[in-house]
């Protein structure tokens, strides 16, 4: 198969995946997540049920179709931090950048989608699981970066503190969204909240996992 043919095939697969995801989201919002079936999604997308499950192993994956980006996001940010930058500072910088972009990955999902999640016990449980997986991924990176010995609880404790901070901010965005606040207002409020909560960790974690090169602070 030529490179062009391979590229076209991959493009077609991505189009099909996006089509299924879009129809699923519409049906979830219109009818409720719990009430919508895979058969409903397949019919709306004009594909076989097997095609839907080939792209999305579980129905929850259709609602959280960017979950891998979410789960790995904190770990990637820490792994890619700048010289002289601590894990804390890298995550604070990345979060505030996400606020400026009103990034859905940090919680800017809109009132309709956010309400769909909070009204579904299945999706609420899945969101908790994704937060837990994100914290675990962050722990693994911190343990590797710090050369931690097996059984060293330091990286796990730090991951728990940083992960909880991100979780609290995510929940706050959801609350403000459901309260009907516009995104610009939410962004202004959550930026202040982020500076506050990350600042509370500064004394304990400001010098933790600083990338060698430049000094961490002046």
UniProtKB/TrEMBL annotation:
Recorded superkingdom: Bacteria
DNA-binding region per Swiss-Prot/TrEMBL record: 37-56
SUPFAM superfamilies: Homeodomain-like (SSF46689)
Record-annotated HTH tetR-type domain positions: 14-74
Residues that span the membrane, as ranges: none
Gene3D superfamilies: Homeodomain-like, Tetracycline Repressor, domain 2
GO MF term set: DNA-binding transcription factor activity; transcription cis-regulatory region binding
Keywords linked to the UniProt accession: DNA-binding, Transcription, Transcription regulation
Protein name: AcrR family transcriptional regulator
Organism, as annotated: Streptomyces candidus
UniProt lineage: Bacteria, Bacillati, Actinomycetota, Actinomycetes, Kitasatosporales
């Amino acid at each position: 198969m030529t490179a062009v043919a391979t590229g076209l095939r991959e493009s077609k697969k991505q189009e099909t995946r996006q089509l299924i995801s879009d129809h699923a989201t519409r049906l979830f919002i219109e009818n409720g997540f719990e009430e919508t079936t895979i058969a409903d999604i397949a019919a709306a997308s004009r594909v076989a049920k097997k095609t839907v499950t080939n792209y999305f192993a579980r129905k929850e994956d259709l609602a959280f179709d960017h979950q891998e980006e979410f789960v790995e996001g904190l770990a990637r940010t820490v792994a890619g931090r700048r010289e002289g930058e601590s894990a804390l500072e890298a995550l604070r910088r990345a979060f505030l950048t996400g606020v400026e972009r009103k990034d859905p990955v940090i919680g800017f999902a809109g009132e309709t989608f956010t309400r769909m999640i909070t009204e579904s016990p299945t999706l609420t449980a899945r969101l908790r699981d994704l937060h837990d997986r994100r914290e675990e991924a962050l722990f693994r990176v911190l343990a590797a970066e710090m050369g931690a010995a097996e059984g060293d609880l330091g990286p796990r404790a730090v991951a728990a503190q940083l992960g909880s901070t991100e979780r609290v901010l995510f929940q706050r965005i959801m609350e403000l969204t459901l309260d009907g606040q516009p995104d610009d207002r939410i962004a202004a409020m959550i930026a202040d909240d982020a500076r506050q909560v990350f600042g509370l960790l500064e004394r304990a974690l400001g010098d933790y996992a600083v990338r060698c090169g430049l000094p961490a602070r002046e």
